[in-house]
Design brief:
The chain has 13 helices and 13 strands. The protein has 355 residues and is of the alpha/beta class. It has a 9-stranded mixed beta sheet, sandwiched between helices. It has a two-stranded antiparallel sheet with strand order 2-3. Strands 8-9 form a two-stranded antiparallel sheet.
Length: 355
């Protein structure tokens, strides 16, 4: 038997399997309650309230950040991406990062690398305050560069382009010759403005209905394909999905078990709403309005102080309860008992800081 024939025979005897085996071992060996999805404790505690169940779930979470313009959702996204990219420590400085690769789909085409860099540097400097040794400028620049090297940004311009990119993502991330992130796990799949093509798809759907094409439910079909792709990638890479969406209505409050909770209905198809694990409503903290009957002169005198108050006001990220009827009872009880219903954070020119 020739060497080629022997090699083919031995290769044929090799049993192949997918990543589900390694995924199963990971969940069995590592307790669900100990998982760190983003490196940010406030976010991880909230996600673990959904994933640390009995019996445990083997699904990685899907986090949706929703809010109106200037609500802080994108700033929070910058912070989470920075934490996923940064290492756990650097030059004896504890950073509590994840040291992973991040795949980012910038569907809104407005994700700023300059702002991400500022947020990353601001967070590192806040960690340096806890360390007696300063970090030289060259070391800081090196840390920023080696972190951003593992951010993979895609900017598809339509839903079909987005879905096609998702279908090829596994082969791209596993190709050691395409990038330098082969030695890192995928920390998260991030989608900036997952609803960016919503009206474009609705228009196409309406045009189809007016012609002989008549493809029913085009929007729902594309979101169904989107969820299918993301589920497969989560199985392959064992990572969470973080997405931002635009709020098209106002937040209202309802009472559940006598406790007021925020509710913000989603405009996205039900297949996406069922896919999302937790939804955070981002909003700017309200400031006191000018008192009734105040004169123009009095308002001008308070303008400086008022501007300072507005600039120093923070933001909140509150758990949306609009889909709470689909939550498990133990999840609802855990959220109520631990009060993991959200957190506050501040946004400055230097960075984003979660309380």
């Amino acid at each position: 038997m020739s060497a080629e024939s022997l090699g083919a025979k031995l290769l044929g005897e090799v049993k192949t399997d997918d990543l589900k085996l390694l995924r199963s071992l990971r969940y069995n060996l590592a307790p669900q309650s100990a998982r760190s999805y983003t490196g940010q404790s406030a976010v991880d505690k909230l996600l673990n309230a959904f994933t640390s169940q009995n019996p445990p779930t083997h699904k990685d979470p899907v986090l949706e950040l929703v809010g109106s313009p200037c609500s802080g959702k994108k700033q929070l996204l910058y912070h989470l991406v920075a934490r996923l990219l940064l290492p756990p420590s650097y030059e004896n400085i504890v950073l509590r990062g994840r040291s992973t690769a991040v795949v980012l789909f910038d569907l809104g085409n407005n994700f700023s690398l300059l702002r991400l860099r500022d947020v990353l540097i601001g967070y590192v400097r806040s960690c340096i305050l806890e360390n007696p040794d300063p970090l030289p400028t060259d070391a800081m620049n090196h840390l920023v560069r080696i972190s951003l090297d593992h951010l993979h940004i895609f900017r598809p311009q339509s839903s079909p382009s987005f879905l096609a990119t998702l279908s090829d993502l596994q082969s791209y991330m596993l190709d050691i010759y395409s990038h330098i992130s082969a030695n890192r796990t995928v920390g998260a799949i991030v989608i900036n403005h997952v609803d960016a093509f919503l009206w474009q798809d609705r228009l196409e759907d309406a045009e189809d209905q007016a012609t002989e094409t008549r493809r029913t439910g085009l929007l729902s079909s594309r979101f169904r394909d989107l969820v299918t792709h993301l589920r497969r990638l989560q199985v392959d890479f064992s990572c969470p999905v973080v997405a931002t969406t635009f709020a098209m209505s106002f937040t209202t409050y309802t009472r559940i078990d006598g406790h007021p909770v925020p509710v913000l209905p989603s405009q996205l198809p039900s297949v996406w709403r069922a896919f999302v694990t937790a939804r955070l409503i981002c909003a700017r903290e309200k400031t006191r309005k000018f008192r009734h009957g105040m004169s123009v002169e009095e308002a001008a005198l308070e303008a400086g102080q008022r501007r300072e108050v507005v600039e120093n006001s923070g933001f909140s990220a509150s758990l949306d309860w609009s889909e709470s009827e689909t939550w498990r009872e133990d999840t609802r009880a855990k959220i109520k008992d631990t009060h993991e219903e959200g957190f506050t954070f501040k946004v400055t020119a230097d960075g984003v800081y979660i309380d």
